[in-house]
Amino acid sequence: MTDVARLAGVSHQTVSRVLNGHPNVREQTRNRVRAAISELGYRPNRAAKALVTGRSQVLGVVAQNSTLYGPASLLVAFEHAAAEAGFTVSVGNVSVLDRHSIGRAVEQHLDQRVAGIVVIAPVESANEALEHLPADVPLVTIDGDPSRPAALVTVDQAAGARDATKFLLDAGHSTVWHVSGPNDWFDSTGRVQGWRDALTAAGVEVPPVVPADWTAASGYRAGQMLARMPEVTAVFAANDHLALGILRAMSERGRRVPEDVSVVGFDDVPEAAYFIPPLTTIRPDFEAVARATLAMLLGQIESGTPTATRHTIAPELVVRDSVAPPAGR
Amino acid sequence: MTDVARLAGVSHQTVSRVLNGHPNVREQTRNRVRAAISELGYRPNRAAKALVTGRSQVLGVVAQNSTLYGPASLLVAFEHAAAEAGFTVSVGNVSVLDRHSIGRAVEQHLDQRVAGIVVIAPVESANEALEHLPADVPLVTIDGDPSRPAALVTVDQAAGARDATKFLLDAGHSTVWHVSGPNDWFDSTGRVQGWRDALTAAGVEVPPVVPADWTAASGYRAGQMLARMPEVTAVFAANDHLALGILRAMSERGRRVPEDVSVVGFDDVPEAAYFIPPLTTIRPDFEAVARATLAMLLGQIESGTPTATRHTIAPELVVRDSVAPPAGR
DNA sequence: CCGGCACATGTTATCGATCACATCGCGTTG
DNA sequence: CAACGCGATGTGATCGATAACATGTGCCGG
């Protein structure tokens, strides 16, 4: 920086002002400094800046399992949005979302003096951890507990589930079965809720929830059971992988989809269009979630006060070939 | 740090020594300092450390599209390994792997004074970018050009492809067709090579490569064509998503898998076991790749010299239900 | 009994930026 | 026309760590 200052014939402070877009610098001086910067190929040392300001241009993300399509997409979208705003993203994966793990991951980010933190906290157990976090750091939660008063961005799970269920009812099915995700996930309980709402709103019998986790394996097991029940003609699966398992179980038992059984998924993974048959599903807009999260976080960083705003993104129904009227009609 | 020093009754330098595990500190002093640290909840300021040492405890990763299962798994595995070694990972996604984008992503990491960089560079176009990078920064390439003299970790694509092809030949098929990935990917050309080698080694006719990209959509298109050709009884798909598309095309045309046509994929995505039928595929060990990459990078960081070592990970055949002897037998 | 040499510890400079305050012109105003 | 204010710029302190060198102790061998 001193070299740049010397070459431009100004003081280091003026260089700093140019760098930070400070207004009180003469146009001509600004240009001389700019020229010197590019001539020397100078690049500011972020560590020095972080040292004196106490904040870095880094955002930390705490996620659980970014191998899954949803979280991975979210991460990429967020990283992209952050890069456009001049921020770098530092990822801290944890294997379990309990208090201890989240706490440690957050601590680690604080060590690095990140400017803000995003926690993808879709499960109950993450809640407790979030309660015990230092309150003065900008923090936004994605897919966290809707009932917690905190900065939160969520996909409207219930609305998506309602759409899916209504779509099946509208096709003529007398009721819709639901294979759910693990019930400590908010995503999962929200979907169950939306499904139940749509059924009761239609004045239709609510069958018992078929519990599963998010894997194709558990969808397959649930599917084996449902395939044996002739009264089951419509199934709403809590995600696309479950749906895949269900499709296979149905196919093995000779129940055709969609002629005998209709299936709707959730997530719209890229392969969903190439399942057998192509899967009708609900698509959450991860880009929108990422953008909203970033905007909220930057707002907190600029204002200096963690605020408990909230943003909900409505998902969208994608119609393909896995739904048809029930066989009897 | 000064506070800690005061509380422990030593100088800040001694605190620094304790922190960095310097040997010449008396046991008793070390304990006093430790006690003071935990009593005050002191945490070292990484920015200050980075400023004075010129290196941060951050590793940068440049990847193209970490939404895909392979790259996402790699990223998570690497992040995990890095965390164990006390490093944080900063991700820089780029949309295209051309010289400009990679250059910019790398620059951005250098700005942050990362200790080392990993570039996941599976395509030809990344090569040029890598040539023009500053040579003095520790850098390891994953899935890069095997013919370039650089620090490189790769999955042995050719070996995996050979295994897959041989497995199909051993089942009794007279030859094996191949639906390939985009041919500017090294992964793709490696798999083509291995497939071709296995066929010629068996003294068997080599059918033309069916070109595709990595998507289920293009696999479906390729599958539609192959399904119309009765002489096709065995297909090796360059990845599992292609295989999924092929499975659907076959099913639509009434060709049963594996009775009429056998299919093998590559990657072992988690859902592969729940395709219809469960897919026989090749599993690359992403964890091993991540570990090898980290070890190589840390080696370079410690020695201070970028070295052109190389490490190849052999993938593994996972047998499921998508392969059977040809119908004629 | 003293020089020397490890080991334990302290002192001061340094990294590269920003911040707070000082200074210098120069046009405006009463 | 002197005082003032403000825009443009410079000066020195500062953030929190490590590096290099200095100092103080105790033990050993000659």
Automatic annotation (TrEMBL), chains A, B:
Any coiled-coil regions, as ranges: none
Domain HTH lacI-type as annotated: residue spans: 1-53
InterPro entries named among the record's database cross-references: HTH_LacI, LacI/GalR-like_sensor, Lambda_DNA-bd_dom_sf, Peripla_BP_I
Keywords annotated in UniProt: DNA-binding, Transcription, Transcription regulation
Top-level lineage group: Bacteria
Gene Ontology molecular function, alphabetical: DNA-binding transcription factor activity; transcription cis-regulatory region binding
One Pfam family cited in the UniProt record for this chain: LacI
PANTHER family (alphabetical): HTH-TYPE TRANSCRIPTIONAL REGULATOR GALS, LACI-RELATED TRANSCRIPTIONAL REPRESSOR
Annotated protein name in UniProt: LacI family transcriptional regulator
